[in-house]
Automatic annotation (TrEMBL):
NCBIfam families: F_box_assoc_1. It comes from Populus alba. It comes from the Eukaryota. InterPro entries: F-box-assoc_dom_typ1, F-box-assoc_interact_dom, F-box-like_dom_sf, F-box_dom, SCF_F-box_component. This is F-box domain-containing protein. Transmembrane segments: none annotated. Residues 8-55 form the F-box domain.
Amino acid sequence: MSRENKVDGSVSILPEEIIGEILIRLPVKSLLRFKSVSKNWYSLITNPEFIHAHLHNSTQKPSVLLRGFRWPEHSSAISLLHREDSTTFHSLHIPESLMCNHTFMKNYFLNPQISPSLSFILIGSGGGLLCIKLCDYHGVDHVLWNPATRKFKYVKHPQQDFRVLMDGFGHHGKMNDYMLVKIGRLSHSPNFDAVDDNQVHEKEEWNFVLRALVYSWRTDSWRLVYDCRMIADDFCPRGQAVYVKGEFYWHVEGLQDIILAFDTAKYVFRWINFPPRNQSTLVEVKLVSGGIKGSLACCVFPYNGSTSITMDVWVVDEGGSGVGTEESWKKFLSIPFSGTLHQVITWGDKVIVNGKGDGHILIYDAISQEIIYDFLNPYFSSYRLDGYVESLVSVEGPNNLEAEPRR
């Protein structure tokens, strides 16, 4: 019997359930190759139920995505910190064809004497897809990118647009959708008639209400949402969006620090207060990327301009009364930290503290309540961390199958 027949014979005697359980644990790179083993394997690997199950399995072993500015090369870069090796960052290749987006290249060829300038901004990561914003002098393109399959797609432009104050990207597991949200303000009259952005009115006669442009991966379409119940005075966003269980959260600063929430299922806004704190003590508050145990979380720590001793992590108790009030928060744990804080994210049952400016990264085990890793990252500046999992999900939508990866 030939070697090929032996391989075929050994595979054929395994029940399909066992084959599926084996394949579901393999990395995407291997699964893309195994699609050519047989028609049965191709059908299995491209089955939406298998793709969903593989994604669920991947979420049990997430990686950390580091995006920042690398020196001395003076270039943007993305790296991964894998769960099985939490000491080494692995570079993630950004396709050149992704960077040379349609708007950028069109403007360059129309007038090559104008020196092009392209900025690369990672809005967010969720369910194996990254959402990237590419900006040049003349416009903005949004791109959905699956690094595991090496596929990407330019998101079509909305028919309506406005000046964006905040944006965010996330994966809604229950709805099986990926959503890109752009938040802005809209002037309105006392009888709630919408007014064009370019018109200027006296503050005594006109207020601001919130609105959102929401892109759905499932429908490949945009939806414009107004919420005239939400009177929005002048405020300034602090940090990027946090996405937890179907809701986006932004830390905004106006007359006071407060959280703006947007529900992607009900398409409504709400305000949430931060946990109670001693008003006589100067503190910083930060939202926790990824939340904790499926709930919104934030950290509060004393700040004197240079150092802090410990930070308290608070979690919203959704089962309690008055969700969104100060009383709805419960203290979850305290983490020792010396330095200035830039960001806190969750990584499975661990919490990662991202130091500001000095490249200080601390990994804290919430179960044992011990610091398991503490190091300085000398390779990046101005960086941010996000969660990442491998996925077979198609950037084209739920009804499209992945073709072979780009070379």
